[in-house]
Design a protein that fits this description.
With about 550 residues, the chain is α/β, with parallel strands linked by helices. Helices cover about 50% and strands about 15% of the residues.
């Protein structure tokens, strides 16, 4: 009599571990076909929904959800080990422990979602459609909280795994959190079918589970026509850009003995004349911290050489530079920035970091670009330079180049979709951005899944905003993505090269660009509030 529960107790952790590992594989690591990633993600999450919604208690749901998520974060974020150990000189045990501790902390959010869903859900087999909505709302709420609390870390949001599925048609309306809601709905609905078959439920129970599947299936299918709506329109002529990928190893990039060599490589690539048949570039884009020292540490002759490149190419240059500037109050300010320069940019403006076209990174990486209070001891253990920057302003002027308005973001800022939206809005009589540009240095993560995951995230931002995006990175993946999320062209990671792309800027605001996360948050708040009221009434009746 007791053998079956004992066996279940032994099997469930294994099942949850395998499901968590499967979910980690769906965030663009390859080699699965794109459409298969979305299906695997929903099936993996359905396993968790089945086990937690039909569990014995809220506490049990919390623990099982936490374990599932700890597995999938540990695998999906394994590349953080590379940055801490290979490039930060942290010991192997400390680096592995850091990844596990971060994963265990992030897993608290999915664990809490499972606990909340179990707490608010009546017997799942009696009200399967309610279970579907409550599960999806709870999961989405905690995805949103994970993107917000303590500056947020929304990497591996389940919506990203759906970028090539029909659900992607909802991105311009509800954003990545709306896609997560629909995917979670589908997972919970599939989970509801399992006990109907396994436990011999009455015919009415099976009908209820099938009816619960109708809602997510309808939302998924509706994504197809939504994907074909033209949410934006071409603006001006296409922009001709050249994207420089220098592939300077991270171990060399900040080495004082090798800085000159890295600068020379990027300089030579930027100065290459267009190939035969290639249009003359309007802009040449270089990656984050292509100049790995502050701008006022460079001799004036170096800035003169860069201005000469701009003159010979008849193009603007955009490059990532750490800036040291002095405010009117006399306070020194340090920022991780992107600047635009042309042949006519004054030398004094370059040396002082006061160029007309400038973007200062505003969403800084904890411990990498700023040190949270009480954690300076951790930074001292790492051999990572440039550890404490000032934040940029929330709204910054796009770069006006060849009739297009380029909104810059740096490194992992493109994870935070709502933060990119202000640049799309017209301001002070000037048009909003027509094109997004991300410059990054992913060399910290070697040849790992991080590169493909970051490209997957960039594709989501193009779907949400109906804007193309250019991604220019030190080691890859350097690419151009159109307003429908399709990769137009790309350079292979960890290669030296220049990618010539022609990208059409777009105008027009998607519903998501206008309202951000407000619609999906109102929806899940309504679902959870109604579920909480019903749960309170049930307890009062008993």
């Amino acid at each position: 009599m007791n053998a079956s529960p004992q066996r279940r107790g032994m099997v469930l952790p294994i099942v949850l571990t395998l499901a968590g590992a499967a979910q980690a594989l769906t965030f663009a690591p390859g080699p699965l076909p794109d459409g298969a990633l979305a299906l695997v993600q929903i099936l993996a999450l359905a396993v968790l929904a089945r086990i937690t919604l039909h569990g014995a208690s809220t506490r049990q749901a919390l623990v099982r959800g936490w374990w599932f998520a700890t597995v999938y974060f540990s695998i999906g974020l394994y590349w953080l080990y590379v940055s801490m150990h290979d490039y930060g000189d942290l010991s192997a045990p400390m680096s592995a422990g850091g990844v596990l501790l971060l994963s265990a902390f992030l897993a608290l959010f999915p664990g809490a979602a499972c606990a909340l869903a179990r707490r608010l859900t009546p017997a799942a087999q009696q009200a399967p459609w309610r279970a579907v909505l409550i599960w999806a709302a709870a999961w989405t709420l905690f995805e949103w909280l994970r993107a917000t609390v303590l500056t947020g870390f929304p990497w591996l949001n389940i919506g990203y795994a759906q970028v090539d599925s029909p659900i992607a048609g909802w991105a311009p309306i509800l954003g990545v959190h709306g896609m997560a809601f629909i995917a979670a709905c589908a997972a919970a609905a599939l989970a509801g079918l399992w006990p109907a078959h396994a436990t011999g439920k009455p015919e009415s129970g099976r009908r209820g589970a099938l009816l619960a599947l109708v809602l997510p299936l309808a939302m998924v299918l509706l994504g197809w026509p939504l994907h074909h709506i033209a949410w934006s329109q071409p603006a001006g002529r296409p922009l001709h850009a050249r994207l420089v990928q220098g592939n300077v190893p991270q171990s060399d990039k900040f080495n004082p003995a090798l800085i000159r060599q890295g600068l020379q490589r990027h300089f030579e690539l930027a100065a290459l004349p267009p190939a035969q048949g290639e249009p003359a570039p309007d802009v040449i884009i270089l990656p984050e911290t292509v100049l790995p020292i502050f701008q006022d540490q460079l001799p004036p002759q170096v800035w003169d050489a860069w201005r000469d490149v701009a003159a010979r190419q008849h193009a603007a240059l955009i490059m990532g530079v750490p800036l040291h500037t002095i405010e009117a109050s006399g306070r020194a300010r340090y920022t991780n920035s992107a600047i635009g320069l042309t042949a006519d940019t004054p030398l004094d403006a370059l040396l002082r970091g006061r160029t007309e076209q400038r973007y200062d990174k505003r969403h800084l990486v904890p411990w990498g670009e700023y040190v949270p209070p009480g954690f300076h001891w951790f930074i001292r253990m790492l051999n990572i330079p440039l550890g404490d920057f000032d934040r940029g302003a929330q709204r910054q002027k796009p770069f006006a180049i060849a009739g297009q308005e380029l909104a810059l973001n740096i490194c992992y800022e493109d994870l935070f979709g709502p933060a990119l939206l202000p640049a799309l809005q017209p301001m002070d009589g000037e048009p909003g951005a027509t094109l997004l540009v991300n410059i990054s240095n992913l060399g910290w993560f070697g040849d790992t899944w991080a590169l493909r995951q970051h490209l997957q995230i960039a594709r989501m931002r193009t779907l949400e905003t109906a804007r193309p995006m250019i991604t220019d990175t030190n080691t890859g993946i350097t690419a151009a993505i159109d307003a429908q999320g399709r990769v137009l062209s790309r350079l292979a990671p960890h290669t030296i090269g220049v990618l010539a792309v022609t990208v059409q800027g777009m105008r027009g605001l998607t519903p998501y660009a206008r309202l951000g996360d407000l619609p999906i948050m109102l929806l899940i708040a309504t679902i959870l509030l109604a579920a909480a009221v019903c749960a309170w009434r049930r307890r009062a009746e008993h």
